[in-house]
Amino acid sequence: MFPDPSKSIPAVKICGITQEQQARDIIALGADALGINFWPKSKRYLPLEKAGWLPRIYDSTTLVAVLVNADAQTLDTLVEERLVHILQLHGDESPDQVAALMDRGAHVIKALAVRDRDSLARIGDYPCQSILLDAYNPGLYGGTGETFPWDLAVVAREQFPDKRIILSGGLTPGNVREAVLATRPAAVDVASGVESSPGIKDLAMVRQFIQQAKAGA
Ligand SMILES: O=C(O)c1ccccc1N[C@@H]1O[C@H](COP(=O)(O)O)[C@@H](O)[C@H]1O
């Protein structure tokens, strides 16, 4: 999923895909990774029983399962059946839980809600290399379409140079270029900002988002 960091071009993850044809269209537009939301309360929820198409595109992209405090059975299915390449954890998962998943061979992105500089200290607690920074919104776990102060992403990169910082939260085709230039993340991630309705992506917006994210300095 992650390109050569020396090129300063971020990977692009389009999140909350619910349909196989949209997945194929978005891969063709140049997305580096697709997010599938397995959290039942998400507006973009895809039940495991309806995810039978994932193996058909598994070799064409990087598939990321978006999860919030997932139960053991869901994690077992995702890890053991290799439905996805990466687990993106948006809940209250502890560093030990992340370490246990990594011990089982899972690649993990830990998402952290950013409110202020103090929120960044938790980055160092987690053993995974990839940390996604999202907007803080009490009671909500992500996918809100809200931004957080991007200077905090710069601080995160400087304080934790060994981590891959993924920027998310309220990104759109209209602001992603500015966000990339300001923060130089390893990747950007968007759900709400490229949708016509929850779980349905607007392909023109996706195309524009990818172009803007990868436009370079
Ligand atoms: O998209 C969701 O519904 C969602 C629900 C719970 C946790 C994470 C979710 N999505 C992730 O949230 C961020 C930001 O999304 P947005 O662009 O602000 O809508 C992104 O990482 C999504 O993958």
Topology summary:
Elements (H helix, E strand, L loop, with lengths): L10 E5 L4 H9 L4 E5 L16 H4 L4 E6 L4 H9 L5 E4 L5 H9 L3 E8 L15 E6 L15 H9 L4 E4 L8 H8 L3 E4 L4 E3 L2 E2 L1 H11 L4
Parallel strand pairs: 1-2, 1-8, 2-3, 3-4, 4-5, 5-6, 6-7, 7-8
Antiparallel strand pairs: 9-10
GO biological process, one term: L-tryptophan biosynthetic process
Catalytic activity: N-(5-phospho-beta-D-ribosyl)anthranilate = 1-(2-carboxyphenylamino)-1-deoxy-D-ribulose 5-phosphate
Pfam family, one: PRAI
Briefly summarize what is shown.
The protein is of the alpha/beta class and 217 residues long.
Describe this structure in words.
The mean pLDDT is 95. The protein has 7 helices and 10 strands. The protein has a single domain (5-213), classed as TIM Barrel. With 217 residues, it is of the alpha/beta class. The chain is globular. Bound molecules: ligand LGQLAAA5. Pfam families: PRAI. Residues 12-212 form the N-(5'phosphoribosyl) anthranilate isomerase (PRAI) domain.
C-alpha end-to-end distance: 21 Å
- Report the structural category: alpha/beta
Low-confidence stretches: none
Assembly form of the protein? single chain
Give the biggest beta sheet.
8 strands, parallel, barrel
* Number of individual domains: 1
Q: Mind telling me the CATH class?
A: Alpha Beta
Helix fraction by DSSP (H/I, runs of at least 4) = 25-40%
How many distinct helices?
7
